[in-house]
Design a protein that fits this description.
This protein has 308 residues and is an alpha+beta fold. It is built from 10 helices and 8 strands. The chain has a domain of 153 residues: Nucleic acid-binding proteins (OB fold (Dihydrolipoamide Acetyltransferase, E2P), Beta Barrel), CATH 2.40.50. The longest helix has 39 residues. This is Conserved uncharacterized protein.
Length: 308
């Protein structure tokens, strides 16, 4: 009987120990559960646009992959597109101004600057590329249009290919004298392949004897002849040249920029601030010439090769 009671007591004690361990385990799981939940609700890692663009060195492929990302996140897709333009030799203007990117190009603050950069990477044919932008109703205009209708274009973006003629500083601010340039081309013949040359020489000798009423005599001599022929194949080639258009403007900078060097072409994106009457008229009653005033937003070096 005592042995039976002992076994019962041992069973009760062991059951109590098991219950205690189970309760402690449940408490531990309860304390651990918030951390598990916090891991599940943690924000996903930020989109790395540069790493995305690095996967696609081909600019056309990079743009297509960025476009496919729009279904996931338009914000991430736009960041990917900017990385494609920055990290590859991007000249696909037609793909950029397609309907897929039109909302971003019209509403994003950096949309106009992105277009200006692509125009520069295409060689800086501002007149031709602006026609493509206008076909898509993208609001970037030429300096000539702004000068012709200053009230209409005041406050709008203009895109100019220009050189810095002069620079003046007032404290941290700078004012540039901009001379607009247009891009043209000149043709010339260039040799293609190797040149064939043939040289030949001929020598002829002879003598003549005879007698006349005046006496006898002889005549001798030789004739040498050389022929030279050359065959060359040429093809026409065209070189881009930058010529002044006759239009000038004042460009305002918020701070001095030593990289805007005089004598070099730049593709400049600016806001058109209207026309200013300059001094220097011969008659005090007459107004001086009027010159457009621009607030420079960004500028880029044009690529030497032009994409048409």
């Amino acid at each position: 009987m005592k042995r039976t009671l002992g076994w019962l007591l041992l069973g009760v004690l062991s059951g109590g120990c098991a219950s205690t361990r189970s309760a402690e385990a449940l408490e531990d799981e309860g304390r651990a559960s918030p951390s598990v939940a916090s891991n599940d609700s943690a924000a996903p890692p930020a989109f790395d646009a540069k790493a995305f663009a690095a996967q696609f060195p081909n600019p056309a492929v990079c743009e297509r992959q960025a476009r496919r990302y729009q279904s996931v996140s338009r914000e991430s897709a736009w960041s990917a597109l900017k990385a494609c333009v920055e990290g590859t030799p991007f000249t696909q203007l037609q793909a950029l101004i397609d309907r897929a990117w039109a909302p971003e190009l019209r509403t994003r603050p950096e949309g106009a600057a992105l277009l200006a950069k692509v125009v520069a990477q295409r060689g800086g044919s501002v007149e031709g590329d602006l026609r493509l932008l206008h076909e898509r109703k993208l609001p970037i205009f030429s300096l000539s249009s702004a000068i012709a209708q200053p009230d209409t274009y005041k406050g709008r973006y203009v895109l100019v290919r220009a050189q810095v003629g002069d620079m003046r500083s007032d404290g941290e601010k700078s004012t540039l004298w901009l001379v607009e340039h247009g891009l043209g081309s000149v043709s010339q013949e260039r040799q293609a392949g190797t040149t064939r040359r043939r040289d030949s020489a001929f020598t002829t000798t002879g003598a003549l004897d005879g007698q006349t009423t005046l006496g006898s005599g002889n005549v001798g001599g030789s004739l040498a002849q050389t022929e030279l022929s050359r065959d060359t194949v040429t093809i026409p080639s065209y070189d881009n040249i930058s010529n002044e258009t006759g239009r000038e403007a004042l460009g305002r900078l918020a701070s001095q920029d030593p990289f805007l060097e005089p004598g070099r072409d730049f593709i400049i994106l600016a806001r058109f601030d209207g026309m200013r009457t300059t001094s220097g008229a011969s008659d005090e009653e007459d107004e001086g010439p009027r010159i457009p005033v621009l607030s420079i937003v960004s500028y880029y070096m044009p690529h030497p090769l032009v994409v048409y």
